[in-house]
Protein: DMT family transporter
Amino acid sequence: MSRYRDAGLFAFLAAAWGGSFVAIEVGLDSLPPLLFAALRYDFGAVLLVAYAAVARDRWLPRTRGDYRSILVIGVFLITAANGLLFVGQQYTTGGVAAILYSLNPVLTTGFARSLLPDDRLSPLGLLGLLVGLAGVALVVRPDPANLLAGTTGKLLVVLSAASVALGSVLLRRTAPTADSVATTGWGMAVGALLMHGASLVGGETPRVADVLDPQVLLPLGYLAVVATAAAYAVYFGLLERHSPVQVNLVSYLVPIVTAVAGWLLLDESLTAPTVVGFLVVLVGFSLVKREALAGFVSRRAA
Structure:
């Protein structure tokens, strides 16, 4: 039953983070990037910590492992990942950024080979990672004329993906004892504070009316509740039960969800190469998860 549950949670994670790109695009029309990201995690942190205080045991950090986990989440998975991504996307196209961010599983594999020897993939699994990345490229299809432009933005997006990859691997080594939902919430609070500081240093000065604009509140509400509080609680819960390489495969599915959401909500085209890209991603995903899929098929046949 837990496998079916985790598969459903993985699908929810892909859907929540895929839809977040649409919400971010709308919100950035009115708010500067670092403040927008910080507000997202302000609300997410309050929701998760409040929920953990009411419904969970051990919601306050007590051990060194708890504090290390909170710092890893706040610094690597919230502040660096989102700050670098939001700023980087100002200097490059969304398509190129999506491909670069999809390096996450590949980068996670590299960090895991050094820091988590037990989580190494087989050669066939590594092939699956590369096949999935090729599928993402087919889905996104960046403009070849712009591939070499915006070097600064591309570097920031790659560093964002590397921060998520390293943070997810380091999190497996921290051994927290507090509830994962509470740890996630406290980590978001740390990340939000750091991003507010970066926003002030960067001179971002929005008006209160901009924050209260319905054009901002709707996407901010989606990001805070669905793509942050709920999605990150699921993400870190999955990391407790599965390797970071396996969990970060969600980065291959997110661009697919984004493409479908754009087709449904923004009347964007869904072309034949995009559909082929979907299938290629599924092939790569199946190579990485072949053992779990084989076990599922054998159980159904029995």
Remarks:
- The two ends are 16 Å apart (CA to CA).
- The chain has 14 helices and no strands.
